[in-house]
Amino acid sequence: MYRKIIVPIAMDQLEHGESVLGVAEKLIDEGGEIILLNVVEDLNAYAQGYMIVDFPLEMIEESRRHAVKTLEALKTKHGIKGRIEIRTGGAAGTINALAKEENADLVIIASHRPGLIDYFIGSTASRVVSHCPCAVLVDR
């Protein structure tokens, strides 16, 4: 049904991410591409004016290495021939930018039940749905 699907996977939600990956496997065209995406949040961008101490660059690099290793293992486990993208930035904006850059057909994103904080700042899934240039499937 789809030739290019982006599957964002958060490292703290691996089980749900793996479930979403299974959905992508069922929807991808033969010869299509699944892109496993992890966005490493740039916490220093959020900390300006609120914190005195910067997060060490090594911490961000370690998060990137962990994400690559974890997504490679998922790719192997599921026999996916797609590729891995690790980006740094805000989650929703980065997902939407990659969807546009790749001319993706579909983004499949996991969602959780909103907590109180989500009502104030909005959830990533909500912002992706609102601004994504392609179809979005939200899996709860």
TrEMBL record:
Top-level taxon: Bacteria
UspA domain ranges (all copies): 1-138
PANTHER family documented for this protein: STRESS RESPONSE PROTEIN NHAX, UNIVERSAL STRESS PROTEIN UP12
Assigned protein family: Belongs to the universal stress protein A family.
Name assigned to this protein: Universal stress protein
Species: Sinorhizobium glycinis
